Amino acid sequence: MTRLLPSTYTGTIYAQVGPLTDLSMYHARLAHLPNDIADLCRIIQGLLVHVFWHGLDESPLTEDRKRALQTRPAAAKLAAILALDDRPLTIARPPERRLAATSHDYSLLLVALLRHQGIPARVRCGFATFFAPRRYEEHRMVEYWSDDDHRWVLVDPQMDDTQRAALSVTFDPLDVPRSRFLSGGAAWQRCRSGSLDPVLFGSLENRGMHAIRCTLIHDLATLNCIEMLPWDRWGLMLPPDEMLSDDDIALLDTVAHVTIGALATPSPEAVAALFASDARLRLPTLIASMNGKASFDLICTK
């Protein structure tokens, strides 16, 4: 059991709610939640159903239920969860009363709950090695700061017992080995150096260096407490690979270097300065976002 207390580590934005992780309006609902990381993950798993794993629960997802995937703020997701089932959050819902989700939603909710309790936490965007042999599948996880271990602990809140058995996962999803998850920055560097083949990276819809580039910029955004949807696109995510300039590539190399450094350096100053420094990286007023029909809509972020 890993009981979590408000961290003594000071000077970090990761213990504070961000624009998409503020659950203060649900303070009464959250007041009696446990502060054990395993219990929090179990609670989230009882509230959400993954769109790619729902078949194991024999619960088909309608297009109406899938629209929940387009919701960005954690508070809005929690409102939708309670609209489906108003019982205490500690009660696991049957699959038909769970909110449709991807790894982003599991990670966003865990980060929101941890920050609500004063625990430094952040979403990390990268590629997991345990979904398919010799594949690096796009995935999101959570890091929380452990005062006891004085390190960022990597957690996969999506990985329940059913998924662990189906994937023959033997490691602890509450302390995922770093070798089983490459951040966007690590993937960019390894593919740029030629040590890994970029075609092994991505998802069904997007593979290769473009997928790595998008994940890299998303990881920089989440390190700045802006946890956008995986299919949101802006800035340097938009051009095709052949349209990138040498200066664009150099900037992406810098992003990879800085975000990898964030693993060992809890201070957010470097990622904040980089994110704010260039319009090709920071979040604009309008972004492109996949609308679920293989095309993109313009979405206002303000």
The beta-strand count equals 10
Number of helices: 10
Terminal CA distance:
40 Å
Q: State the secondary-structure class.
A: alpha+beta
What is the quaternary state of this protein? single chain
Q: What amount of the residues lies in strands?
A: 15-25%
Describe the largest sheet.
5 strands, mixed
Rg from alpha-carbon coordinates: 18 Å
| Backbone shape | globular
Determine the fraction of residues in helical runs and give it as a percent range: 25-40%
Topology:
Layout: H1 27-30, H2 37-45, E1 48-50, H3 63-66, H4 74-84, E2 99-101, H5 103-116, E3 121-128, E4 136-146, E5 151-155, H6 161-167, E6 181-183, H7 184-193, E7 201-202, H8 209-222, E8 232-233, H9 246-261, H10 269-277, E9 286-290, E10 296-300
Parallel strand pairs: 1-2, 4-7
Antiparallel strand pairs: 3-4, 3-6, 4-5, 8-9, 9-10
Helix pairs in contact: 2-5, 7-8, 7-9, 8-9
Q: Would you write up a description of this structure?
A:
This protein has 302 residues and is α+β, with helices and mostly antiparallel strands. It has one domain. Helix content is 32%, strand content 16%. It contains ten helices and ten strands. The strands form three sheets. Strands 3, 4, 5, 6 and 7 form a five-stranded mixed beta sheet that branches. Helix 2 packs across helix 5, helix 7 runs antiparallel to helix 8 and helix 8 crosses helix 9. The longest helix is centred in the C-terminal third of the chain and has 16 residues. The model has no long low-confidence stretch (mean pLDDT 90).
